[in-house]
Each structure stands twice: as C-alpha cells, then as structure tokens.
Write a structure and sequence with these properties.
Layout lengths: L4 H4 L13 H8 L17 H17 L1 H4 L2 E2 L3 E2 L5 E2 L18 E4 L5 E4 L18 H6 L2 H5 L5 E6 L2 E6 L8 H6 L6 H8 L40 H4 L26 H4 L7 H4 L7 H5 L9 E6 L5 E3 L4 E3 L1 E5 L5 E5 L3 E3 L14 E6 L9 E14 L11 H7 L2 H11 L8 E10 L25 H4 L6 E2 L2 E2 L17 H12 L22 E8 L6 E8 L6 E7 L6 E4 L11 E7 L7 E10 L2 E4 L3 E4 L16 E2 L2 E3 L4 E5 L4 E3 L3 E3 L4 E5 L3 E3 L3 E3 L4 E5 L1
Parallel strand pairs: 2-13, 8-15, 14-16, 27-30, 28-31, 29-32, 30-33, 31-34, 32-35
Antiparallel strand pairs: 1-3, 4-5, 6-7, 8-11, 9-10, 12-15, 13-14, 15-16, 17-18, 19-20, 20-23, 21-22, 21-24, 24-25, 24-26
C-alpha cells in the first residue's frame, strides 16, 4: 500500500509519535479538562502515560486477538498452525493483510489519505509480535476504543508509517480526549467492524453504520428503549474478561475467549412459551426465524470480482474492486456444529464439485449431534490464482486502490511474499458468514408457513430432511398402512403427518428419515467426518477432520493408502476424545511417494460402535530433488546419495558399476538397468527405498 512511500515521507525532529503535540497539550493542561482521568495526569505522552498505572491491562490487550490478529484455532479445521487469524490468512475481500499493513494512498486528485488494514488494528502502526516488549506495549492505542473524541491519522515517523493524533479533526484537545475515558461503546466497535471490507456494511452484511442509532426494525437488540428496543451495547453480549472478547461467529479463525455468545444466555433454551416453537430450538438457531433479511439499510458486498480492473469512486478519488451488492437479502441456511473449515494460505486450491474454492465454511450436518441450522451470508469472489501450482495469490491492495490496475497489484503482491510469478488465472471462491445482528422484532419473524406447507424458505432436501423411499422393504407410507398421502391438502400436510406420527404415536425421526430426533442418539456411536488434506508436499501431508465422541471415550485413526483398501493407519493427534460436541482432529503423514494419489478417510470407534468419514484423495507433489548423472556407455555410480522423493534411472549400454559410497534414502525410487551390473560396498538402501536392478 506504500508504492509512493518515498515521496510521502516527512522529516520529523521529534522521536516519538506524540511529541509534536506536547506543546499543545501543556497549554491544554492550563485549561479545565473533565473526565474519568482528569486528575490523573496533565500531559499525555501516548500509551506510556497509560502504562504507568495499567501495564497489566496493556499486557492483556497485547495477548488478545484484537491486538495479535491471531489466536487459538481449536474451533477450526484445515489449518496447520496452533494460532491463526487475519495475519497469515487469506480472505476474499482485501486478500492478505500482511503485505498491506499501513501507508498513505494518493487519490486521483493528488490528495493523501490513510491506507492499510492497520486502520482497524488497536495498535499505533507497528505490527504485532508475540513478545510483550516495551515497544509493543507502547504500540497499543488505548484511546482508539476508550475515548469517544479521539481521532488519528497516518504519518511518517522516523522513516516508518505510524498513527499519530489527528488533532486538526478532533473537537477537543488531545488531553481532553485522553482523560475522558469510558468502557467501549457501540460506536467504538462499529467504527471498525461496520466498515470492514472497504466500506459501510461491505463485509459482514449485518453490521452497518446505521447501528449507531438503529430503529427497532433494523435491530431489536441494539435499538434504544425509547425506540422500543432492548438498548443493548455490544459488550452486553460480548462480555469481556481480561480484554478477551467472546464471539467467534462461524468464519473467524481465532477464538479469543472460551465463553460463548448465545441467545440462550439471556433467553434460555425454550423462550417461546409455545411447545411447537420451542421444539425447534434443538435443531434451529434463533437466527433462522429472527433474521429473515440482512443488509436492511446499507447494501452489502455479495460478489467481489478481482478479475476486473478497478471502478473509480469519484467522491473518494480511489478505485474499488468490481462487486455486486445486495440489500434486504434473504440468508442461506446450513448446519453448524461449532467448527469451521478455512483455506490455508499457500496451499493448492481444491475446488468442489461446483468448481468453487471454499475460503470459510461451517461444518456439520443433520447426522451431527448438536449441529443446528443457522442463517448465513453466502459471499462469492473471483480471486487470482497461480497457474502452475493452483495456490491463491496475494495482492498489493493499496496499489490497486490508487491505480485500479489489477494485474500489477497481483504481480507486486506475489513479489512481496517472495513467490515466483509466472502470470495468473482466476477462480471462483465462496465464504459462508454467520449472521447474528439485525435481529427483527418478533412480529417480523418468520411464520410456520415460511418453511412448511408449501413454504420455500428452507431447502429441506439439501439439508438432509428428505424422507426415506421405503420402510421394511415397502414404499414408506404403505409399509404400515395404505397410502393416505391424499388425506390432507398441501397447506396442512406437514403439520398433520407429524402430529399423527410424532406427537400421537411417539415415533422417532429415524422411522421415516436417515436421522434421529435431536438428542435421541446420545450417548451412542461416534460421528466422523473427513474434511481436507493440507500442506501437501512430495512425501508429507496433513489430514484434517472432525469427530463427535457422543459422550463416550472415542479413539480415532486416519486410514490411508493408494486405493480404498487403505492398508495404513495413524492415530489422530487428539486421540482419545471425549465430550458431547464435535472436535477438530488432525495428523501428519510422512514417507509418502512423490506424484502419487492416496485415498484417506477418518475412522472413529467407541463402545457403542464405529463410524467412518467419506473417502477422499490427495496427490503428492512431483519430486523436486534431482537425480545424479548416472547413465552412459559403462557408468560408475559412486559416492552419491539418491535423495528422498527422487525417482531416478541409471543405465549402462554395456555395464553399470554401483558403489562404493552409494546411499538410497527412504522415499527414493531408483532403477539400475544394464546388461551387466556390479555392486561394490559400501552400498546402503534405507528402509522404504525402492530399488530395482534389471540385467
């Protein structure tokens, strides 16, 4: 984002970000200031002033996801690192924050404006590091969340871009802003979260600038009491402990707090005082009925296409990516068991049957105990891809914003991460984003007929609710009685059938469907789901899946081999598993053959039974290790090592001498071919090496 950085530098005589304002602050001290810290200090020297009393709190912030932009990935599947987040992760909006951190952008009108993903980071411009050094602690910008009147801007300080107080655009002095501190309000949260992805409501779809003063129809929780709403603040639901903020949603990699944000925290598990409605809560998130539409005020980005050059936004003087927006959008619905899959930066893409690459997706299905149907925004994006190894490419987004030239932004992005650039293709990607805000008043919630009795809000077939065709070898309805499907008209069929069989006869769902009623199969046999293979190299790979122990101690293994008989197995790292929720499991395989297709599946076993996930495949990379020169009229192969991953052939027209000093490593394949072959010791073939001699 700093392609014009050299021309934007300013010479500062002061050594710190806040030094330019010290003089003004000392004058301000002679005037009356008010607020929670008005009697605590008379000069504000940046975060070092806060640290005098609040070093413990600063260390808490430093360790949090809001500062690190990484955290615990125990709720994710498909990532090979113990921590992950925005930093180090690829997304389908602004692509890759690591190389787009902070800088100045030049508009088409020649104006300088702030740029970079760090505009929404709670630091002063230095990238976060894991060690809480003094520099890192002083990099925390306490005022960003705790002062309602503070503003900041990007400037060059000692040769680096940093945030400094923007006193020209503040309505009070910096000292007044620094002493009037509060617990973060909704505006502090929305200033970043409502504008993620480049503009108002572009990214989330259910968080927009209008939430700063919402009406009850926009959000019944955040609307004021005077408007007829609950008057809640963000922190009423996201109850913070030690600066750790709970609430991961479904498409955030890190988990900042083990505390969960659920509707039941306030409303209980059966909030309706209506048996027919309350029975839905075992399988349905409240969001399904109570968020019938999202992006109610500001339209949201639904399809972002990076294959086009940028579109100039006249009022900004900058280019935006070509994107299609939607307003009053109907959600899509998927099961969610609390775990999410994510694409891992640098991996080769694995498009699904529909040709799309999944960037983030909820896991779980109708057979998964505890999984619930939830409302989602389904975002599409056309992303740049390496034509040689199919990994997604990063981009220099600041360059794109200034010029609108996508090809150059891709090339410079690839260069910035140290990859080789050989042109690019594009591929369609998708992300499912959980919806939790813009809850409608109950009078605007979905009715029963929205889904049942010819309602089409839910695609029951795709969710797994299609009835079995037969029962005991006979057509389903005729297996127990004559076909009575015409007894009720379609406007009452669903209700009548279920009243008769479920309410009156107490049949379990499994009588007519492939699944049991929620909670009826626990404790019991486990569930296993094969999800993905990542970090695929010549001889190694990481396998990922999920296991639901179903309240029994459960062991799990990966079965793998070159066909569906597998023949090999390895325990998951997390085995044995316990509990009553889906858990992410993984294992690393080694000593594989290069350029070979392997089948793999996850198998889980407990005292009530065994379950296996679906069979999937991965293909190891072709070997990059080189073979020694070992062919000719009568070659002598000596003092060489055939490296792991090599597939070599040594041939002689008349003869071939092998050794002395020849080693063939595990994972290497070597064929020796000559009319006459002589072997001289030392000659060593490690276990796992494949050696063929043909005379």
């Amino acid at each position: 984002m700093t392609s014009s950085a050299a021309s934007l530098q300013r010479n500062y005589s002061e050594s710190r970000e806040f030094s330019t304002d010290i003089k003004n602050m000392k004058h301000a001290a002679s005037r009356t200031v008010t607020g929670s810290h008005a009697d605590r200090f008379s000069v504000y020297e940046g975060t070092r002033t806060c640290l005098a009393c609040h070093e413990t709190e600063a260390r808490e912030v430093h360790a949090s996801v809001h500062y690190q932009w990484q955290g615990d990935v125990s709720k994710t599947v498909g990532l090979d690192t113990p921590k992950a987040g925005k930093l180090g992760g690829m997304n389908d909006f602004c692509i890759y924050p690591d190389i787009n951190w902070i800088g100045k952008l030049t508009t088409v009108n020649g104006n300088q404006v702030d740029g970079g993903c760090a505009k929404c980071h709670v630091g002063l411009g230095e990238k976060p590091s894991t060690e809480p050094t003094q520099s890192q602690l002083e990099n925390i910008d306490c005022l960003l969340c705790h002062s309602e009147t503070y503003k900041r801007r990007v400037d060059m300080v000692d040769g680096s871009f940093r945030f400094v107080p923007d006193t020209d655009n503040m309505t009070v002095s910096l000292l007044q802003a620094a002493v009037d501190l509060k617990s973060p309000g909704n505006n502090s949260c929305l200033n970043c979260h409502a504008f993620a992805g480049g503009g108002n409501n572009f990214k989330r779809g259910d968080l927009e600038d209008a939430h700063k003063n919402p009406g009850v129809s926009l959000d019944v929780h955040m609307a004021s009491n005077a408007e007829g709403g609950a008057g809640l603040n963000c922190l009423d639901c996201h109850r913070t402990t030690a600066h750790r903020i709970p609430g991961r949603g479904t498409d955030l990699r890190p988990l900042d707090s083990a505390n969960e944000v659920n509707c039941s925290n306030c409303h209980g598990e059966q909030p309706h005082d209506n048996r027919n409605l309350d029975k839905h809560t075992a399988r349905f998130s409240c969001t399904v009925c109570h968020i019938p539409f999202f992006a109610k005020t500001a339209p949201t980005d639904m399809d972002r296409d990076w294959s086009h050059n940028g579109v100039l936004v006249a009022e900004k003087g900058l280019y935006e990516p070509y994107h299609q927006k939607g307003q009053n959008v109907q959600p899509v619905y998927r099961f969610f068991n609390g775990l999410s899959y994510f694409y891992q930066f640098g991996d080769a893409t694995s498009p699904g049957a529909d040709g799309k690459v999944v960037m983030a997706s909820p896991l779980g299905d109708i057979h998964d105990p505890g999984a619930k149907i939830q409302a989602f925004k389904h975002h599409l994006a056309t992303l740049p891809m390496d034509p040689e190894n199919n990994r997604l490419f990063p981009m220099k987004i600041g360059l794109f914003f200034q010029t609108g030239q996508v090809d150059e932004a891709i090339a410079r992005g690839v260069e910035a991460v140290g990859w080789e650039y050989n042109g690019h293709n594009f591929i369609l990607a998708e992300r499912y984003m959980g919806l939790f805000h813009e809850v409608s008043p109950k009078s605007q919630a979905l009715s029963c007929n929205s889904c049942h009795d010819q309602g089409n809000r839910l695609d029951f077939a795709s969710l797994g609710y299609t009835p079995n065709a037969t029962y005991n070898g006979k057509p389903l309805c005729a297996a127990c009685h004559k076909d009575e499907s015409d007894e009720w008209d379609q406007n009452e069929f669903f209700e009548k059938v279920h009243d008769k069989h479920v309410r009156d006869k107490k049949y379990d769902c499994s009588r007519c469907h492939t699944f049991s009623s929620a909670g009826q199969d626990a404790p019991g046999a486990p569930r296993a789901a094969t999800i993905a293979a990542t970090s695929i190299l010549e001889t190694t790979v990481s396998l990922h899946g999920t296991v639901h122990p179903n309240s029994r101690s459960t062991t799990a293994v990966w079965e793998y081999g070159t066909d569906t008989s597998y023949g090999n197995s390895v325990s998951v790292v997390q085995s044995p598993l316990t509990g009553n929720s889906a858990l992410a499991v993984s294992a690393a395989l080694s000593n594989l053959l290069p350029n070979t297709t392997y089948h793999y599946r996850l198998k889980a076993t407990n005292s009530d039974g065994t379950a296996s996930g679906v069979d999937r495949t991965f293909t190891t990379k072709s070997s990059t290790a080189k073979c020694p020169t070992c062919s000719g009229e009568a070659p002598i192969v000596q003092n060489v090592t055939f490296l792991e991953g090599t597939n070599c052939r040594c041939s002689g027209n008349t003869s071939l001498t092998i050794g002395p000093g020849v080693t063939i490593q595990n994972g290497a394949q070597v064929a020796f071919d000559a009319p006459a072959i002589r072997v001289k010791n030392p000659f060593h073939a490690e276990k796992g090496a494949v050696v063929k001699m043909r005379q």
